[in-house]
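#lab-general

N.A. 3:47 PM
ok so I finally got the sequence cleaned up, no stray characters, all 171 residues accounted for. can someone with queue access submit it? mine expired

B.Y. 3:52 PM
send it over

N.A. 3:53 PM
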Amino acid sequence: MILPTVRDPRFITIRRGGTLTDPDHRLLALWAADCAEHVLPLFETVRSDDPRPRQAIEHIRAWTRGEVPMMQSRAAGGHAMGAARDLRGAPRFAAYAAGQAGAVAHVAAHELGAAAYAIKAVRAAAPLDRADELGRAECRWQREQLPDGIRDLVLDDQRLRNGICWSVFDC
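B.Y. 4:20 PM
back already:
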């Protein structure tokens, strides 16, 4: 479980009673897409014939542009998760990252799931003696991609949810 039991109002849109603006929601979605796309080759190397994770990333980006409805992006995220079902290790985590990214349109807090699974994918693909080092490097890369408008929000979310996200944000 990578979502908190009590939802943070900062990740709930204003129209649903939270404080998250639509522009910031879109920034979270784009950042999640970047995190997932960064590790997507770890999936595509073993399943080059399965487009579902890539489609989830494309759908969340299309959602930010208003080209697809939330339900379509969320469904694409679910299909990406399905692509991971029979896999293990890095390819599975990379597909999960894409699935989490696709779901950001529905629940903004999935943004951290995309990032956490991407870090797990990098760690799983690394030689055992370098897994922590390369995981921290991926975490730092992700932080470098954060737009200024959501940087503090995401970093605080990482601090708050690090324990339920396998402590991957200790970078």
